[in-house]
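Minutes, structural biology subgroup

Action item carried over from last meeting: produce the structure token record for 3-methyl-2-oxobutanoate hydroxymethyltransferase (Nocardioides panacihumi). EB confirmed the sequence was re-checked against the source entry. Recorded below for completeness.
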Amino acid sequence: MSSTPSSSEETAPYGAPTAATAPAVKKVRTHHLREWKEAGEKFTMLTSYDVMTARLFDEAGVDTLLVGDSSGNTVLGYSTTVPVTLDEMITMARGVTRGATRALVIGDMPFGTYQASPEQAYLSAARLMKEAEVAAVKLEGGVEMAPQIQRLTQGGIPVCAHIGFTPQSEHALGGYRVQGRGDAGERLLRDAHAVQEAGAFAVVLEMVPGDVAARVTKELTIPTIGIGAGNQTDGQVLVWQDAFGLNTGRVPRFVKQYADVHSVLLEAARAYTADVKDGSFPAPEHTF
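Output recorded by EB:
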């Protein structure tokens, strides 16, 4: 894993030399993702919307943190990502950038803040960079978004593209549906090459058949980040509430749950409620 410190002078048990790996990175930058791709090293991304999870995931060695517009569902209670505003994204991103010291922090561009024109996209992205201090932005779309990506990158704003299933276009796509099957795979490849040529430093592939994602990953020089796209992409991303079991609703097929945070918090909240009601909290040791 790229976050693990290593040295060519380290030795394994019984004096056997260890295999050489990439040196530890103090602060992840966009060029590190490409270097890891070239070295065949996988990297990680999780969503984060606040300072506490940012600190925790950063400490765990997660390489990149996405302040996603998935916050519309997981934080703000919207039914889709569409209602999320730029002001809401900026507020959440401020907490994440203050909590992360190593991870690369990427801020999502909400629906309606970049589609109209390259200039609209630049002004919106500039606000995210200036007011939240994110290191990069992410926007959805392929060929049709190439002018926006080019404008941002020429203006000094790193861009992570997002193709395949694009949640902001849920209504136009007819719901949560896998993208890139059959002849649509060629269109996905065109989108992937278009965002690379426009200057994107990486591209998210969401809900794409594994063989198509593998082909995209092989053809592109920029890193690919998969979510529901198989294990041949250069990196992986998950929504943290899905991955760690805070979400008790429908979980996508591509999610692996690594914990049951919901049960832990539920039990703790019940214990607190019981202690207050029976008078056992606050106890003398909690009182001045």
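Discussion: The first strand starts at residue 43 and ends at 47.
Next step: EB to file the record with the rest of the batch.
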